[in-house]
Amino acid sequence: MTAGPMSPDALEAALRAIGAERYHNLHPFHRRLHGGDLNRGQVQAWALNRYYYQSRIPAKDASLLARLPTADLRRAWRSRLEDHDGTAPGTGGVARWLKLAEGVGLERAYVESTAGILAGTRFAVDAYVALVRERSILEAIASSLTELFSPTIIAERVSGMLAHYSFVTPETLAYFTPRLTQAPRDADFALGYVREHAVTVEQQEAVLAALRFKCDVLWSQLDALHFAYVEPGFIPPGAFVPDDRR
Ligand SMILES: O=C(O)c1cc(C(=O)O)c2c(n1)C(=O)C(=O)c1cc(C(=O)O)[nH]c1-2
Question: Known InterPro entries for this protein (predicted)?
Fold first, then answer.
């Protein structure tokens, strides 16, 4: 006899267990970033590559928004677009990320061009956008659930970076302040949806797989950064070269 579906509480516990095991707070690159073990060029490489993630988040949310069947769902989801794109030029998360990148010494136009990012960053981020576009609404919503785990890492990152890097200021890290309230709000909504709608064994397996996939998306971006800029420090042709490596 095969086991039946989990209760919503058991499903939530299984989702949280995935984060405890696989979220990118456990990656050595983040340990170094937050612990003050990177130099300015390595922090620049992180900010530059992560811009690509930030810049594609509104595209993935817009593609999901277009598929949501009710006004209630669309209203809830569209606040993500407003958070990232802002409500006027120069506002919103993507603009704040550009300020972060400029704050650590990068040129805005170079960052926006995405010309210097790693192929690993591009492939991982594009795979996330494709999953949200192509898979079920349930899987697309579940793939955002890494945000259940982000407030802890953001708090760690902001305090760690401010303590350890003289070139990082509170203004530079202003990107993260609203995320501490936006992420829990968004994650609570997504978790409520998943608890209510993932009711069959197949649906529950699909949402767990979507969250594992998303953890892989975040993890592999850090793998790419680590290999190129930390150990062995093999920068691929065409990728950003920090000043101290020229
Ligand atoms: O700083 C982080 O570690 C972190 C993680 C995540 C995440 O877990 O996907 C997001 C963010 N930040 C973030 O700033 C953000 O806007 C965001 C949107 C999403 C998403 O999947 O829709 N994740 C994240």
Answer: Haem_Oase-like_multi-hlx, PqqC, PqqC-like, Thiaminase-2/PQQC
